[in-house]
Backbone:
């Protein structure tokens, strides 16, 4: 009898191991779904492009080039830096990144939104540059279409589209105000989210926050901002809004969205009728002198924009954070009512490395349902833990059987097919060292296999 019991227990152990490895569930947490690394590619942090090669006309530019060693090719050589300002981690200022400013050429970095095109390529939104208006005046605002090769771990840039405003659609002065093409820079807007509807791109910005529409060549053709539905029509504004100046009286409140907490994620309905721009953090309630919350827990607003009528509908939802110090990274719909949202903490680096005094702990992709409760809160159904992704075959060749994404900003997620999602970090060029202390992190593309029920309505 004892021998039979041992055999049964061994069989059960093997079954549970297989059950977990195939990405079904986590016995310790019924809402957690174990993902498995199915593909991996990266863009090395020291990858640059020559702006004069691309920005030479208002047309779609770029003919494609490898930003990692092509199959059978040679490795890239690091560029000779001549800067005098050392880059350091935003989270751990004592940890340097090995980058110096200014730079000799433009980095390809900061992916803050992704859309799967269906043909193996992905559209990615590149954010404003280096994190603020003051240090991003010479960075181009661009959308790229990339082709990752998950077998060779390389990425090919198919094309780059540079946002520009020759028709003066944007209602305020920009850095290149008096030039012919009026290319947009990181001092004008901070793009963090993207959708492609027909032949147009829609971009969510954090400085306003604003919603921008551009044609296939990157020319701005539409521009909107949103009245806050709970503030008597007053505009939702961040401290970087162009209408905001330094107040003359201390304590004066002139904005209600924290800096860098504007439209971080933006989904679109599957019928392409509506956009759902989502803030990165909660709104400050000026009258209550507190962040919007439910029983002390902060929530974030999701808005609705009617693409045909080109206006915000006034409808919104609320997303309740697990911790008040958390933020969101991206948002894409996978069904009529369901979508994927990245929720993350502000930590960086593996917890087991002592130099990371504020390590990454909470990095998740939540599946949500917009069929809200009576108070407008979306339902959180289950999640993928990005700090615990199975990698039994060591797909990324790091010698480990668990893949983690210990980055402070993970800002891109989309459905690839019924069994896979893509997740990409924003490497905050010059200011993040989440993979190893003292070394600027790369842009990593993780193709994650999930159970089919995770991506069903």
Residues:
């Amino acid at each position: 009898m004892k021998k039979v019991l041992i055999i049964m227990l061994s069989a059960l152990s093997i079954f549970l191991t297989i059950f977990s490895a195939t990405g079904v569930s986590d016995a310790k947490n019924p809402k957690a779904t174990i993902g498995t690394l199915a593909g991996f590619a990266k863009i090395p942090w020291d990858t640059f492009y020559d702006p004069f090669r691309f920005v030479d006309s208002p047309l779609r530019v770029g003919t494609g080039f490898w930003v990692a060693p092509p199959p059978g090719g040679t490795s890239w050589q690091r560029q000779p830096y001549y800067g005098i300002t050392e880059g350091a981690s935003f989270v751990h200022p004592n940890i340097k990144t090995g980058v110096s400013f200014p730079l000799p050429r433009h980095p390809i970095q900061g992916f803050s939104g992704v859309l799967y095109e269906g043909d193996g390529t992905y559209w990615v939104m590149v954010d404003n540059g280096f994190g603020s208006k003051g240090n991003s005046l010479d960075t181009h605002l661009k959308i790229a279409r990339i082709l990752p090769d998950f077998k060779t771990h390389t990425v090919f840039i198919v094309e780059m589209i540079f946002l520009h405003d020759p028709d003066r659609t944007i209602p305020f002065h920009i850095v290149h105000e008096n030039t012919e093409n009026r290319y947009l820079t990181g001092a004008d807007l901070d793009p963090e989210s993207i959708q492609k509807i027909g032949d147009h791109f829609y971009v969510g910005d954090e400085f306003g926050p604003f919603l921008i529409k551009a044609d296939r060549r990157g020319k701005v053709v539409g521009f909107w901002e949103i009245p806050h539905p709970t503030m008597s029509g007053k505009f939702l504004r961040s401290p970087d809004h162009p209408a905001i100046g330094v107040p003359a009286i201390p304590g004066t409140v002139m904005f209600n969205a924290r800096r860098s907490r504007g439209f971080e994620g933006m989904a679109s309905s599957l019928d392409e009728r509506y956009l759902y721009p989502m803030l990165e953090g909660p709104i400050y309630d000026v009258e209550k002198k507190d962040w919007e919350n439910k029983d002390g827990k902060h929530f974030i607003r999701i808005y609705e924009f009617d693409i045909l009528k080109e206006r915000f509908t006034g409808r919104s939802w609320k997303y309740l954070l697990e911790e008040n110090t958390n933020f969101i990274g991206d948002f894409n719909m996978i069904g009529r009512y369901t979508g994927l949202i990245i929720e993350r903490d502000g930590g960086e680096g593996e917890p087991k490395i002592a130099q990371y005094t504020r390590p990454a702990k909470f990095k998740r992709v939540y599946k949500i349902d917009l069929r809200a409760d009576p108070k407008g809160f979306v339902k959180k159904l289950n999640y993928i833990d990005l700090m615990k992704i199975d990698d039994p075959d060591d797909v990324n060749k790091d010698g480990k059987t668990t893949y983690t994404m210990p980055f402070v900003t993970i800002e891109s997620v989309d459905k690839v097919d019924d069994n896979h999602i893509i997740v990409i970090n924003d490497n905050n060029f010059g200011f993040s060292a989440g993979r190893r202390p003292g070394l600027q992190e790369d842009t990593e593309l993780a193709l994650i296999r999930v159970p089919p029920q995770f991506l069903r309505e």
Notes: Residues 2-21 form the longest helix (20 residues). Confidence is low (pLDDT under 50) at residues 2-24, 53-82.
